[in-house]
Amino acid sequence: MRIISNHITIMLSFLVVSIYSCTSDGFKQGETGYQYKIVRNGDGPVFENNQYILMYMDYYYEDDSLLFSWTEKKTPVILQYIDTLWESRGQIYHGLKKLNVGDSAIFKVNCSNLYEIAFNTNIPYGLNPFSYITVEIGIARMLDPTEFRIWQANLFKTRREQIQKKKEQQLLEDISLIDIYLEEQGLIGMELESGIRYIVRDKGSGKKPEQGDQVLIHFIGYLLDGTQFDSSYDRNDPHEFTLGSRSVIPGWEQSVAEMPLGSKITFYIPSGLAYGEKGLGDMVEPNTVVVFDFELLDIKKKGN
User: Fold this and answer.
1) Which of 177, 258, 269, 287 has the greatest number of C-beta atoms within 10 Å?
2) Assigned domain for 97 exists
3) What's the CATH code of the domain at 134?
4) Buried b vs exposed e over 218-253: b needs ≥16 C-beta within 10 Å?
5) How far apart are the first and last CA of the chain?
């Protein structure tokens, strides 16, 4: 009877452990208090020390409020697997160690554990430290250090090409917009190689400034619809800068370099040479063509 009783006790203990290690929604209990559910077994290799793991991760506050998505960015998270380091980085890293390449899983980790231990940062304002963060993870690839360097170089090259292509497309759109505007206004503009168009209102009689010269200009800045956003005339305060110092937008540098002393010229500047994707606060929207009326008042030669 004692043998049977001991056997029943063992079975009951096993049943209790099973109940507490697997919740009703299919999640299992991790060894350090997190919960996890394997969504897909990819049958890939296990993680190896010093290898780089590429994964996609989406973070949700509790179940539904999206905090951040690497999937939407279409950029993988890259973590180097070092077993002893991951062991000390908290619940999410403990959970990651259960996965292989190709696996997908959902983790529920303590908010304070994720931010303060895994991320080594403060908990964002508004998040309850005792709540949980749901993390959806898909393991894409594992690369050795040499493979990772090649992958990273190709990624940077692709991004540079994408950025350059986007800039070229934006420039073409801006130039087309400027040319249509000039045609509608019955104006004939001259062109710089960069795409800037300009109309000379007063030729002036002096020489053009050179790189390193200090120039003094009056200006009015406005949009193609005539909305003015800045004017040194209104302030009675001409602007001084050194040509080539990169202290002003590229469109200013290129435009003023074409101006003889005493000239007054209107320049139509594509957005990439003006305020680009960031814009200028509430005054100039991102990717917006701007217009500047310049008057070159003085040139101080470099070294004088």
Assistant:
1) 269
2) yes
3) 3.10.50.40
4) bbbbbebeeeebbebeeeeebbebbbeeeebbbbbb
5) 109
